[in-house]
Amino acid sequence: MQCLICDSLLSDNGRDYVIDETMFRIGQSFRYRECEQCGSINLAEKISDDTKLYPDNYYSFSVDPAETFNGFLPRLLASAMAKSSLKGNRLFLGFMFRYAPMREVRTLASILLSISAAYSGSVSKRILDVGTGSGVLPFVLSLAKRSYTLGIDPFLATEKKAKHFELKQASIQDIHETFNLILFNHSLEHMHDIEQSLAHAKSLLEPGGTIIVRIPTVSSQAWDTYRENWFQLDAPRHTCIPSRKGLTQLASSCGLQIMNNYDDSTDTQFWLSEAVAKGLSTMDATTGYTAYLTNTHSRQKKRSMKREARKNNSEHRGDQTVLTLRTT
């Protein structure tokens, strides 16, 4: 078996981890193995076809973007955020990422921030969102009316086509059009052919085009602290959680250069991992632990977690990182 990130043989001497499925608590555990060469953590067993990995209530399919942004104010805010992103304006998005009262808005702001960080002076006319879920990002970007975004997902239930965006049930290997910007927003770690998928994405780039990868990483304080209870392991949906060394090797092997790299982890790495350690489901809102506003930590503890998350990001020790890639 090969490491999905650096393609090295996963030696029997590599350290194994037994990791519970914690999103829905289906009562199964899965074996992962650490790559001795790059330190990435790989799923080391075949998943039964009976294991439903992405049920209808999976979080990325549970939000209807048209309904969420139906009101005047939500749509106005989403449109302003989309325009800021496509113009390379990070100030407004940075404010929303840090201070928006709703976690969903902060998450959206972090995605749009990655697009603005890759801004190179011209609007990305054609954008591909790989692993789009219910299509929140293509819908929001369409509100700016400055680009066309295709959102693809192999588990998409309903396809849709509009003037400025389209949703299609497909994998990256099914796409042969070209794009100015391709996004893997926490989707690359779900794939069983990570290197091939990234290489194929490179082949779809227009000259001067950009690939953005947002992904969890084991080169982080959260992994060192929580290990099997780190919520971003998300067994068995995550086939491989890369190290930073592995990501550098992956980009190079695909003929890509890392133009920019920063961490955008949040305090979720602490309080949600602690919920996992207590045996809770990360999708069960009734527990009162898995929602930021209702978990039982004190306000002082929550503020401390936020400060620690910002510190980790500044030291490249956050539990998720953002890579801006261009052709070498």
Q: Would you give an account of this structure?
A:
The protein has 328 residues and is α/β, with parallel strands linked by helices. It has one domain: Rossmann fold, CATH 3.40.50.150. 32% of the residues lie in helices and 20% in strands. The longest helix is centred in the N-terminal third of the chain and has 16 residues, at 72-87. The protein is globular. It starts with 15 loop residues before the first strand and ends with a strand.
Briefly summarize what is shown.
By secondary structure, the chain is an alpha/beta fold.
Q: State the CATH topology.
A: Rossmann fold
Order of SSEs, N→C? Answer: EEEHHHHEHEEEEHEHEHEHHE
Head-to-tail CA distance between termini = 29 Å
Number of helices: 10
- The total number of structural domains is 1
Number of strands: 12
**Which strand order do you get reading across the main beta sheet?**
6-7-5-4-8-9-12-11
CATH class term: Alpha Beta
